[in-house]
């Protein structure tokens, strides 16, 4: 089997060309073809000699793979489904919004964190995506050239696959790669201790922490990861980091009706986050089957937002997009997984 070039950092491309006896400068040329021109085959890398292209092709391929399924929402959101070589499915969501066009990417197939409200968590964990598979989500969609932002808010916990995520971020933000500003990229996490420390030290991208309750016992009930790395400790780590240099820190907070949506919670959030340079994104819950949680109504969400803003924390209500296309992350891949199982049963 050939090795994918897509997903290789410049250092890795340097090693690859050296091993093949190609000139050292061809590593940058290959990076330019891959990440600048986004070619789909080695044959298109026309400033490499024919001999070197043939040599490269003996061992490598670009390694891009088109989505197997696209589901379009009435509001312009498109959910893409990619198939992994193991036969699993991962989701990416393209979200156009005026001048902005954001792609929400996945970092794992399923997730180990088992948050109560999350469909991906319900799938369990089937593996981490490679750098190739992470970047391929950005490389292989028709809207790739109009993207303004990428958020790691799809399936999986990015800090549980940090090596691959950091390498993807390097390629997206390096001059040899996509040359994007790190301010165009946000990584969302439940907060894993070692991952958080490494991410803060090794990347300049924005950070979003999934919070969902300021009370440790309730947060643990919603998000078991709280038991390993409590929100109070996460906040302490963040307090020692300087977020004033354009790197944005935000907290995500799903408002569950009658669970965490009263002003008691807003007041506690203000206490927890006092003095931190941050904002809160209030998220509408996308209902998932078999879970006894409901979304809060708009009036409650507005009152919650206004309380936070009045008490010094900038808060926004995130617009809910693609409600008509299995909106909750993990729903489409779960449905596809199920359909594939049924197809296989029929074949037997
Ligand atoms: C799917 S997660 C992926 C990133 C990372 N694992 C995390 O939890 O932050 C991205 C965001 O979606 C939220 N989320 C998960 N299930 C949801 C649902 N059913 N409705 C609304 N938001 C949900 C998570 O809490 C998190 O803030
Ligand atoms: S919300 Fe994030 S961490 Fe929790 S199960 Fe879903 S993907 Fe995993």
Automatic annotation (TrEMBL):
Cofactor comment: Binds 1 [4Fe-4S] cluster. The cluster is coordinated with 3 cysteines and an exchangeable S-adenosyl-L-methionine.
Residues involved in [4Fe-4S] cluster binding: 111, 115, 118
Binding site for S-adenosyl-L-methionine: 156-157, 188, 210-212, 286
GO biological process per UniProt: rRNA base methylation; tRNA methylation
EC number: 2.1.1.192
Keywords: 4Fe-4S, Cytoplasm, Disulfide bond, Iron, Iron-sulfur, Metal-binding, Methyltransferase, rRNA processing, S-adenosyl-L-methionine, Transferase, tRNA processing
Listed PROSITE patterns: RADICAL_SAM
Reactions the enzyme catalyzes: adenosine(2503) in 23S rRNA + 2 reduced [2Fe-2S]-[ferredoxin] + 2 S-adenosyl-L-methionine = 2-methyladenosine(2503) in 23S rRNA + 5'-deoxyadenosine + L-methionine + 2 oxidized [2Fe-2S]-[ferredoxin] + S-adenosyl-L-homocysteine; adenosine(37) in tRNA + 2 reduced [2Fe-2S]-[ferredoxin] + 2 S-adenosyl-L-methionine = 2-methyladenosine(37) in tRNA + 5'-deoxyadenosine + L-methionine + 2 oxidized [2Fe-2S]-[ferredoxin] + S-adenosyl-L-homocysteine
Gene Ontology CC annotation, any one: cytoplasm
PANTHER family: 23S RRNA METHYLTRANSFERASE, RADICAL SAM CORE DOMAIN-CONTAINING PROTEIN
Name listed for the protein in its UniProt record: Probable dual-specificity RNA methyltransferase RlmN
Annotated source species: Phocaeicola salanitronis (strain DSM 18170 / JCM 13657 / CCUG 60908 / BL78) (Bacteroides salanitronis)
Underlying gene: rlmN
